[in-house]
Amino acid sequence: MISEVALDSLLLQSLGHQIVERALSLGASDAEVVAIEGEEFHVKVRLGQVEQLVESGSRGIGLRVFCAAKDGQRTASTSTSDFSEEGITRLISGAVELSKITGADPFAGLPEREDFGSLPVDDLALYFDDVNHIAPTERIDLARRCEAASLGYDTRIQNTSGADCEVSTSHRVIVNSRGFSGEYRRSYCGFSVSPIAHDTTGGMQRDYWYSSARTAQLLEEPEAIGRIAAQRALRRLGARRVPTQQCSVVFPAEVARGLLSNLLSAADGDAVYRNASMFAGKLGEQVAGENITMVDDGTMVFDRELPNGSTIRVGGFGTSPFDGDGLRTRRTVVIERGVLKEYLLNTYTGRKLNMPSNAKASRGISSAPGIGGGNYFLQPGELTHDEIVSDVKSGLYVLSTMGFGVNLVTGDYSQGVSGLWIENGELTHAVEEITIAGNLKDMFRNVAAIGNDLEFRGSGAVPTVRIEGMTIAGS
Amino acid sequence: MAAVSTPVSLPAYDHKRYFFDKLGLSERLLERCLGEALSAGGEFADLYFEAVTSSSLGMDEGIVKTASQGISVGCGVRVISGERTGFAYTDDLSAERLLKAARTAALIASGPQTERVQGFTHTNTPQLYPVTGVSADAEISSKLKLIARADRAARAFDSRIVQVRASLNDELRRILVAASDGTFASDTQPLARLNVLVIAKDSENTARGTSGGGGRVTLDFFSGDKSPEHYAREAARTAILQLGAIAAPAGDMEVVLGPGWPGVLLHEAVGHGLEADFNRKKTSAFSGLIGQQVASSKVTVVDNGTMPGRRGSLNVDDEGNQTQETVLIENGILRGYLSDKLSSRLMNMPNTGSGRRESYQAIPMPRMTNTYMLAGEDQPEDIIRSVKRGLYAVNFGGGQVDITNGKFVFSASEAYLIEDGKVTAPVKGATLVGNGPEALKYVSMVGNDLALDEGIGTCGKAGQSVPVGVGMPTIKLDRMTVGGTGR
Question: What confidence tens digit (pLDDT) does each residue in B325-349 have?
């Protein structure tokens, strides 16, 4: 997969500089360009046959302009996929014109010159060319082998929603009128399978498992992934409801990750300055139990062991040299022993809260930067996963949550759940069609156990946790 | 609201001219690309051209803080060979790049060319919506007035409203579909949405409220009942209400759902499970249930893409077929699935014009348009009065379904207790959970007050988002699980 687009990419920075210059000449007092290009390959295999094959590249460019006014700056954003002279002209004049109708905002504006920075891109190991050298037939084969392992695992697995293999690369450039200019590339490869298990009564359950990496060298064995996916689907069979009650709830790592990420969402500077977060005005206060330390770190590079025993350095999925404002990424302890230490801030929200940005700006092409963390994790504890489960007399082990019942303003939490029932420390039958509910403020104070099973499978990692005092609604 | 679809009276509009005159396409070029796409033995190929201009204006803390515009143009080339789909896209519409994308997609098949490109038959396009939408630059000052009015009205509602964000988002999407089976269709699809988000705060609590609406409409839409003040008051009212809400109850109980947006129940409980692709692959809890009782006999559910001006409506789907009204459940009996070209061919069933895609970068699949339950005969007051102890849910945040086991959730954002036939205390948000093929069997009363939602729905499936509508009259479910923390 190549290359005409990749060659063009050498021109992206100079295109960015040109656009910034032209915006200034049209009257903007500051301008910032973000250009993104990417190539993607995706194959879906189902029951051994290729079902979909997608291969393409795309690119886009976004411009943000500022116009100084008496009491602040006016700002507007434009974006386009049209790189023709006409398209670029429209991008620039559109932004400058549009900025005239916005209101002057004393907090708007690019970061100050001295605030810009970047980690050395080459040290971060974000791009591995080897993903491009996985031959198309091999990519199809990864998906096929993964699915075959699921189908061959148990006679109760006769169907799947398919197995996918994806390979993608992306290139991002940011250039602005205050002297910042930066770019980096990232690579990704991964595969997954979603087997469907069925029982004698006609009930069906689906689950999935996956492997993903920045380099082909770190992809796991597809057969192992297929078998895990099969086990995950099978253990959901025979699910039934349980009565309404209060009990212990165990969130294994891959579910705990979503639950604990709510802590970071509540620390989002944008929500905080708007009073739209339960953490607004709580800096320095105890917002969680003393066993909770949560870190957001956009700088992580891991040493990973290869099958041959050697190690390789590879950047995390949330790692980048600079944020969407052009500030050097960093490690931020958001909650330390339950005390809220920092919000997640970009330049704008930092100014609103009268604090320096901690480089959490996330920037798409179509609008001004929002807030987005890098890699995040919960400081692990001492207990093993099995010890946490075996301590439970009677409780719920969550396999997945569903719904939109998380209110970060009030902390109210209510989600649909599928899981396993724990009886005398043992996982017994599957449960479904129930909800769990509580308030995040109480839940994070009532984390009774934290596991030692911290593993980065994506940009976030949270070990197994057990929370007391939640309400199950069921029969 | 009656489920009728009288096309609005507008002068005929040639949607394809934009692509031919402005982007330099020609029928000759489309034929060449389709020929190239079939060159490796594919049975079917289509080209989907899309040009979208979008704009967004946001008033925040009393000032116009955000303004953005975007342009996206591209083409997706799809080739089908048996059950296999090859796909490639390009954002460069030069002949060279289009032919390259066609050659890439063609490789899903491997053999000599077997099919020829049929002569194009131009699909008649109905006129369910205006072709201009609200995107004209001249209207920017009118748009600013709308969000400023929303901002003022929300702040004026109550002194406890401490934050207001009002935004107006709109887009104009032009599409052209040309396929090797002779399909040739084009459309111009406006879409607008006005949104208000507020935060209310008193000495003890903080709460949020949102409201919004729109459709495939011009700015005039917001000058009638659906004014900025209407949405602003609605957002402010729900936020203030939530300040005093008590814990929602937990467990199985009688549930009354109000009219309109609570129809998201249908979207999750049955709609997704009836999309043909899931049923072809036998991965849906509804697989093989056609002709069977899946709801109480009072329940009739349709999907209707032909309602003028509605957010989920389309003159033609993204495969160039006219949309239609499709009966999904009739008097409780499962009647049909929603299908696209691929699934109708493979399953040997009618194409319901339900092939939709998020953009030119995505492969079409069967999707809903506007999904709603037909009105019944009960008076809404009688429905409430019949409940001894239960929940009355009138607004929802969103929903989700696992189509394989049929379990779905939807999250109430405005709900009340019903005690002895009377609506009493407002309760905090809670998720309701149920089982798709079972839940609607508990429908015991259906109101005469069918309403569609305000025009805010966006449906996600396999990573693709498309605008949809939902609707429902007031209904009573004899049993549903409410996921609160209270008694």
Answer: 999 999 999 999 999 999 999 999 9
User: Which alpha helices (H) appear in A11-52, and where do they start and end?
Assistant: 12-25
Contact A54 B242 (CB under 8 A): no
Q: Token digits for A54?
A: 């997608």
d(CA B255, CA B247): 16
Does residue B279 register a pLDDT over 80? yes
Query: Looking at the domain assignment, is residue B112 inside a domain?
Result: yes
Are the C-beta atoms of residues B216 and B457 closer than 8 Å to each other? no
* Cβ-based contacts of A430 with chain B (< 8 Å): none
pLDDT in tens, B90-119: 999 999 999 999 999 998 988 888 889 999
The CA distance from B344 to B319, in Å, is 12
Q: Are B264 and B396 in contact (CB under 8 A)?
A: yes
Q: Does B415 touch chain A (CB under 8 A)?
A: no
C-alpha of B213 from chain center: 12
The CATH number of A4-234, from 3.40.50.1110, 3.30.2290.10, 3.40.50.150, 3.30.70.1350, is: 3.30.2290.10
CA distance linking residue A160 with residue A8, whole number of Å: 40
Q: How many domains does chain B have?
A: 2
Same domain membership, residue B231 and residue B135: yes
In chain A, what residues touch B67 (CB-CB under 8 Å)? Answer: 75-77, 98-99, 101-102
pTM of the model: 0.93
Q: In this structure, are B185 and B292 located in the same domain?
A: no
Q: Are A60 and A91 in contact (CB under 8 A)?
A: no
pLDDT of residue B134: 55
| Token duo for residue A26 | 């049209």
Domain that holds residue B366: 250-483
Share of chain B above pLDDT 70, in %: 96
Report the distance separating Cα B20 and Cα B174, nearest Å. 12
Biggest CA–CA distance in chain A, Å, is: 74
Which residue among B243, B267, B293 closes a domain?
B243
* C-alpha distances in Å from residue B129, one per residue of A118, B168, B189, B310, B353: 49, 19, 8, 8, 18
Residue type, position B424, single letter? T
Q: Assign residue B120 the CATH number of its domain.
A: 3.30.2290.10
Contacts A105 to B, Cβ<8 Å: 63, 65
Which among A52, A409, A473 has CB closest to B208? Answer: A409
DSSP string, A210-271: EEEESSGGGPPPHHHHHHHHHHHHHTTTT-B---SEEEEEEE-HHHHHHHHHHHHHHTBHHH
| CA–CA separation, B229 and B59 (whole Å) | 14
Give the domain-ending residue among B243, B258, B276: B243
CA–CA distance, A66 with A87 (Å, rounded to integer): 20
Residue ranges of domains in chain A: 4-234, 245-473
